[in-house]
Amino acid sequence: MSAIAFDVYLDGLQLNTVFHSPPVRVEDVRASLVEHDGYDPDIVVVRADAPRWKDADGGLIPRHEPCAYCGGMCPQQEGDSEFICDGFSGDIEGFYTPCQCAACAAHRLGL
Fold it and tell me: pTM of this prediction?
């Protein structure tokens, strides 16, 4: 079974990419990095293959970026979290619509 890559960020800057054998949750990777490896408690950990979303200018926002609506951490929350703002939840501007280009579609399908 191959390892899963996780990107580690602090203040919007990528610090590292770490690898863990599945099954593993993002929360567990983050806790291990903070408690065992001494990383700053403010780190953000995301799967390296996490989807990217379009921003207002048509660019792609990695999941570790703050919410385009409220500036919070809505993109890092699970879908049913109470910590997601209404803007992110409804996405009326379409900022978080997954990219539909052929390359991204192929990546999502594992091709």
Answer: 0.51
